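Interim report, section 4.2 (structural modelling).
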Amino acid sequence: MDNPRTDKPKTRQPRMGPTRQGLHLMWSQLGRRKSRPTSILLAVCWGTFSMMLLLSFGEGLKRAMGQGRDGLSQASPAILWPGATTKAWQGLKAGRPVRFEEQDLVALRQSVPELVELAAERSRRAIDLRWGAKSVSAHVKGALPCFERIRSHAPQRGGRFFNDLDQAEARRVIFLGPALQGRLFGDAPAVGQTVHLRGVPFTVVGTMVDKTQNNMYGGPDVETATIPLSTFEALFGEEPYHNILYTVVPGADRAEVEKSVRQVIARRQHFDPEDESAIHVWDTGRGRREEDAFMQGFQIFLGVVGAMTLLVAGVGLANMLFVMVFRRTREIGMQMAIGAQRRVVMAQVVGESLMLAALGGYLGIGISWLVIEAVQRLPLKGEVFEFLGRPILSPPLAAVTILALMGVGCFAGLLPARRAARLNPVEALRHD
Amino acid sequence: MTTQSNTMILMDGVRKVYKSGTVELEALRSVSLTIGRGELVAIIGPSGSGKSTLMNLMGCLDVPSSGTYEFDGRNVSRLSPSELADLRNRSVGFVFQSFHLLPYATARENVEMPLLFAGLPAARRRERALEMLHKVGLADRADHLPTQLSGGEMQRVAVARALANRPAVILADEPTGNLDSRTGRGILQLFHQLHRDGVTVVLITHDLRLAATCSRILKIQDGRIVHDGAEVPPDETFDEEDLPLVGVAGATAGVVKA
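Predicted structure of the assembly:
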């Protein structure tokens, strides 16, 4: 037999550190032991499932609300209505009505650099709209081409919204909301057809993509027929604008912009710029921020409720690991006797904890995915899903859940691991 | 006296006191001894005499309450838990009465464990573990689980594990205590062979016939060394209960020594 002292272990390769040693040992023993931690896997799985589902419903609700809001516009415009003065100003009496005119737009364009889009609209209700022998009563709006963007007037495939040329030449083109289109045309194709508005022939250039609209003024867009503002004036005369709309550059102080807008119009029309009743402003962008904050808070709340369930699972996991450390006391003593560093022992326990958390988590994420897919495929239609939304599993939510799982796995493993690492090897070896 | 460089284990006035609440138990009272490199020493004594405490101290599983202990020239009291673990890993090989094998790991994986704690890469661990299993005559059992092995084979695996990092000292605590006499003899022969190879071997036993095969016998009683010599102390008799273990005591000793 050769002399055991001749060959000292001297490798040039980097040596494995204690943590890797422990993880290696844990990994190599995984699944070989008889005890099957089924109950803990179920607990972690349930916690993950709860958290995922709550977060997904929150996300679904947020998106449903967002869609409803975006039905009005994604560009967050501010919408102005003319009011009446309530204060005397420069020798003029209170109670004068404010009238939006083209010169207001010109002045705003010159004086408020933060404005991106500036538009005006007029509308009339109960106008006779006829296609062939069929006739309906319609809400007709004169608008500008930029409405496609700032008021979410997206055309369906095969059609278009009217453009700058239509506006410039006051062409008789008309864009129909889908509900109105349905009433007039049924299932027949609308684009390219000639309809008669108050007896005047118009060509349908496009129909709007169906949308959910939670916020509106004047009526739902899906019920409206839209024509170029210039055409509207030619047809109904140059009455004052019903509304002025504007969007602002990103990052601008919306309250300050509103103040400037009020000042410009007040100067032109001679009223007190502080007179809030002279112009009514609905800034959808300012509401949006509050809504976003609310939804975020709501989602965090749902997430915390889910995380609590996960935390309970974590306590169960920690408890199971304590029992495991107790059962393996002799084994741990043996490892220490043959030279395991404390970190080797710790890494085994924490590693096992993370493995269990990961396994339960995988199951939980898988099951919640199945449930969410199933709910999305439910053949239910109507108000509930339109406004509450359907649960949505998004990658960031999965990431949040996985992070939470890792945290739970780590913390659940840490205390039992410390106990294991602090065992006295002599006593541990004697343990039975 | 051995010279410093040849001294493996040096204890001077070592005491070990265990405290349990207000009660103090003095397991070792002022033990002084030296064990030279390459010696084969048996430590005997009745149960509760302090044998195991002495072995735990020698193997650096524990540190003395007072007195100095130098292992291979290093003062153990000054070492951190991490340094002690390192010392145990590289310089000490433990063999326990109850084997202490990982039940769900194969013989090879069990032998690889101290190599893993030494940070060796997988290929070298495997190579060395197989070499050690070959040395104890279990090359063909490398992929067996402990439950598929006999008691003697399990203890051979434990010896292979103790040898894996080529330690300077092998400490065996009742290594044949759970084995029948034939198997026990085989394990004892293994220790003798290691001794011939130059490894320092300390055997703790209450089996006098086993002790009689060693070149030096220490007897410990009530935490003190009461005998240190080449012969079994004269007041010791081979117990009745020892007889079924090995049959005729003198004959056994002879067989092993031959």
